[in-house]
Design brief:
Number of strands: 17
Structural class: alpha/beta
Bound molecules: nicotinamide-adenine-dinucleotide, zinc ion
CATH architecture of the largest domain: Alpha-Beta Complex
CATH topology of the largest domain: Quinone Oxidoreductase, Chain A, domain 1
Helix content: 25-40%
CATH superfamily of the largest domain: Medium-chain alcohol dehydrogenases, catalytic domain
Shape: globular
Length: 383
C-alpha cells in the first residue's frame, strides 16, 4: 500500500509498505478515505519529538471504511464508515473509566506521561498512523465512531481531533456567561476553541496570531476580535488595554511548543532544544489573564524544563488546566452540533490533495504557504 513515511526532520515521502494485518482479536483494519495534517504533525516533522523513527507513518486524524475486523470486535463490521479518535484507548483502565481517554495507561505502557496515539512517534507507542491507504486500529470496539448518515467525511475527519480539542480547550477554561476569552493561535485548534467559547456563553472572544489570513478567517468563521501580535509594540499591554487593564477571564494556549514572538525562547526551546519548546504563547496567556482567572493549555509541549512564568501564575492565583484531548468523551455532543448545522467543521479545510502529494503538503502547511489552514489528504482508493 502507499503510505507517508518520515525520513528525518523536514523530509517525508510516499513509500510502499505492507498492508497492516490484524494482530490482536480486537483490531480492525480501516481503508482510509480522508486524513489530515495537524499542527501536532509539524512538531514531529520538525524533529522536535524524541524517538520519531525513520520509516514511520504519521497521521492521527483519519476516517475510512472498515475493511476487516478481528474475531472479538462487536461494534464494527466490514463496510462501516468510521472516524477514529487520535488517542488509542483501552476503554477499561483507571483513566478510561473516568473518560480520560487521552490518559489511557494501557496503550503506551512504556511511558508514565502519555497514552498511545496513532502516527506520533515511539514516544506515544510507535503505532503507524493514517496517512496511508490502510491503518490498523487497536481496541476497535472503543475508539471508532460510526459516521452518521448525512455527515460528510470532511466534517467527520475534523471530529477525530481538532474540533474536540478546541472544544475541550474552551471547556477547561470553565467559561462563565459573559466572560472575556483570549485564544492564542488561529490554527485549526484555536479556531475551534474560539467557536466553542461562544457555545459556552463567552461574552467576548479575542484571537491572537501573526498570520493575517488566519486572523481574517477566524474573524469571519467565529465572529471574534483579532490582534496580530507582530504588528503591535507590546502584545501584553495591547491585550490588557483591550480588557480594562484587568486582563481576560480565560486565556487559551492553542499554539504550543513552536510559538513565535520571543527570539530567546525560540533559540533555547526550538533551535537548540535546551528546553521543551518555546513557551512564548503560554507566557502571554499567563500575563494577559486577570488575577484568579483560568488558563487552559492544549498546545503541545515536551516534558523537559520550560521557561514558564510560574511566579506570575502563582501570585495571580490562576487556575491552570491542560491535557491531551479526550476525543471520545466529546463525540456525542459534537456530532450533535455538526448534524444540527450549528458548526460546520469542514469550512476550515483549505486544501484537499491526493495522498501522493504528501511531501508538498507538509512543506506548504509547515511554511504557511498558499493561505493554508487545514489540509486533507485523499488516498487513491478513497472512492
Ligand atoms: N492537546 C491536544 O490534544 C492537541 C490536539 C491537537 C493539536 N494540539 C496542539 O495544538 C497546537 C495548535 O495546533 P494547530 O493544528 O492549530 O497548529 P497550527 O500550526 O496550524 O497553528 C498554530 C498557530 O499559532 C500561531 N502562533 C505562533 N506563535 C504564536 C504566539 N506566540 N501567539 C499566538 N499565536 C502564535 C501560528 O502562526 C499558527 O497560526 C499545536 O501545538 C498542536 O500540537 C494539541
Ligand atoms: Zn491533530
Ligand atoms: Zn485505558
Amino acid at each position: 500500500m502507499l503510505a507517508m513515511t518520515y525520513r528525518g526532520p523536514y523530509r517525508v515521502r510516499l513509500d510502499e509498505k505492507p498492508i497492516p494485518q490484524i494482530e490482536h482479536p480486537n483490531d480492525a483494519i480501516i481503508r482510509v478515505t480522508r486524513t489530515c495534517l495537524c499542527g501536532s504533525d509539524l512538531h514531529i516533522y520538525h524533529g522536535l519529538l524524541p524517538d520519531t523513527r525513520i520509516g514511520s507513518t504519521f497521521g492521527h486524524e483519519f476516517v475510512g471504511v472498515v475493511e476487516e475486523v478481528g474475531p472479538t470486535v462487536q461494534s464494527l463490521k466490514p463496510g462501516d464508515r468510521v472516524g477514529v479518535p487520535f488517542n488509542i484507548s483501552c476503554g477499561s483502565c483507571f483513566f478510561c473509566k473516568k473518560s480520560l481517554y487521552g490518559n489511557c495507561e494501557n496503550t503506551n505502557p512504556n511511558s508514565s506521561i502519555g497514552a498511545g496515539f496513532f502516527g506520533y512517534s515511539h514516544t506515544t507507542g510507535g503505532y503507524d498512523g493514517g496517512q496511508a491507504e490502510y491503518v490498523r486500529v487497536p481496541f476497535a470496539d472503543v475508539g471508532p465512531f460510526k459516521i452518521p448518515d448525512g455527515m460528510s467525511e470532511d466534517d467527520a475527519v475534523l471530529l477525530t481531533d481538532v474540533f474536540p480539542t478546541g472544544y475541550q480547550a474552551a471547556e477547561m477554561g470553565d467559561i462563565k456567561a459573559g466572560d472575556t476569552v483570549i485564544v492564542f493561535g488561529a490554527g485549526p485548534v484555536g479556531i475551534f476553541a474560539a467557536k466553542s467559547a461562544w457555545l459556552m456563553g463567552a461574552g467576548r472572544v479575542i484571537v491572537v496570531d501573526q498570520a493575517d489570513y488566519r486572523l481574517e478567517f477566524v474573524q469571519n468563521y467565529a465572529q471574534v476580535e483579532t490582534v496580530n501580535f507582530a504588528q503591535v509594540d507590546d502584545i501584553i499591554m495591547t491585550l490588557k488595554k483591550m480588557t480594562d487593564w484587568r486582563g481576560a477571564d480565560v486565556c487559551i494556549d492553542a499554539v504550543g511548543a513552536e510559538a513565535d514572538g520571543d527570539w530567546l525562547q525560540t533559540l533555547a526551546g526550538v533551535r537548540m532544544k535546551l528546553s521543551g519548546g518555546a513557551t512564548t504563547a503560554l507566557g502571554w496567556a499567563i500575563e494577559s489573564c486577570r488575577k484568579a482567572g483560568n488558563v487552559s493549555i492544549v498546545g503541545v509541549y515536551g516534558p523537559p524544563i520550560n521557561l514558564v512564568p510560574m511566579g506570575t501564575a502563582m501570585n495571580k492565583g490562576l487556575t491552570m488546566r491542560m491535557n491531551q484531548c479526550n476525543v471520545k468523551r466529546y463525540l456525542p455532543r459534537l456530532i450533535e452540533h455538526v448534524m444540527s448545522g450549528r458548526v460546520k467543521p469542514s469550512d476550515i479545510i483549505t486544501h484537499r490533495v491526493p495522498l501522493e502529494e504528501v511531501s508538498d503538503a507538509y512543506h506548504r502547511f509547515s511554511s504557511k504557504l498558499d493561505h493554508c489552514i487545514k489540509t486533507v489528504l485523499i488516498p487513491p482508493k478513497a472512492a
